[in-house]
Amino acid sequence: MEMDVKWKTENILTQAISFRASDIHIVPMEKSGVIRFRVDGNLVEIEKFPLTLINKLINHLKFISGMDVGERRRPQNSSLTVPLLDKSYAIRLSTFPSSFNETLVIRLFPHENHLSLPQLSLFPYQATKLINMIHAPYGLYVICGPTGSGKTTTLYSLLHTSFNVMKRNIITLEDPVEQRCDQFLQMEINERAGITYSSGLRSLLRHDPDIIMIGEIRDSETAKMAVRAALTGHLVLTTLHSKNSVSALKRLHELGVKKTDLLDVIGGVVSQRLVNMLCPYCGASCVPYCKKQRKRRRGAVYEILTGTPLQEAIGLIDSWNSMTSVVSINKVICKGIALGFIHESEYNRIGKGV
Ligand SMILES: [Zn+2]
Q1: Residues with C-beta atoms within 5 A of ion ligand 1
Q2: Residue 106 has what pLDDT?
Q3: Which helix (H) or strand (E) holds 93?
């Protein structure tokens, strides 16, 4: 029986990886339980199990990840590296007390070899524009969008391009390091050990980087240091949590970056979203088993603010009406729909929040 549970756990994890799921939900119900995967943003039911097996799976996962197995009333979190299919996968587990015993959710971190920008971008011309953008010798480049919009993936792709094409020295500062990479020096934020974004950035600057990647700008101190690093001749790439490129500029201004500094230092602001691409086999509502066969299911669409429209947007940062002539994400999505790459419903899912 022990063996059964261990085997079943591995089987579920392997299956989730083959679906390229982002999360696994193990949910007990009144008499049975279900396994659900989150695939491309949607929750899909994969398998039903008897309640006893569901509880055994949850206990097993709690045990191997070092949680308190006897504790069922308080939520717990843990993480674990599991070897599967000749690779190791980082997973994060969390339990949540529910009305029928506790639910367990596993977050899987994407482990596919990094995607090149042309593979990632729905439109090749947008990939080209982004790559040209980071040929600049210095400046601050910001990628924004909500959680799950693929900002980090774009950032890594840009770094790989800079390394492979331009042979630049790259140092990253991340919380946490999402993808290990031999080509960059990666520093992880560890507040307990005193490594914060600002202290990390200070020590990183002594290591003579050409390109600095800051995982995310969250506070005024980091924002100001990022600007200073860019002003002193570094190319700084970072992400910001904001809905579009103009609001990212406003956010930096709110964090205390002066308008004159913004004008001097910002080379580009990019807002992005991930769209589900139409299935070439079954059309709009692709069934999970079909999805599994498809290599490319999502594409990134970008709003790229550079050059004169960027300078104009910074000039209008204090006014209510900050119109720019940037091509919005909505327009890019419409183009994708018109060309038959994406379904109309993606406009409502994504376009409304842009
Ligand atoms: Zn399909």
Answers
A1: 279, 281-282, 286, 290
A2: 95
A3: strand 87-97
- Which domain CATH number covers 182? 3.40.50.300
Residue 151 and residue 56 in one domain: no
Distance 298 CA to ligand 1 centre (A): 13
Say if residue 204's pLDDT is above 80: yes
User: How remote is the CA of residue 17 from the centroid of ligand 1, in Å?
Assistant: 18
Q: What distances in angstroms separate CA 158 from CA 107, 250, 318, one per listed residue? A: 25, 24, 31
Q: Does the pLDDT value for residue 228 go beyond 80?
A: yes
Domain total of the chain: 2
Mark which of 108, 126, 159 sits at the end of a domain: 108
Residues 135 and 266 in one domain: yes
- Map residue 295 onto helix, strand or coil: coil
Q: Per the confidence metrics, is the pTM higher than 0.85?
A: no
Q: What's the gap in Å between 155 CA and the centre of ligand 1?
A: 29
Domain housing 50: 2-108
Are 169 and 296 part of one and the same domain?
Answer: yes
Tokens of 13: 């994890």
* Alpha carbon of 340 to ligand 1 centroid (Å): 15
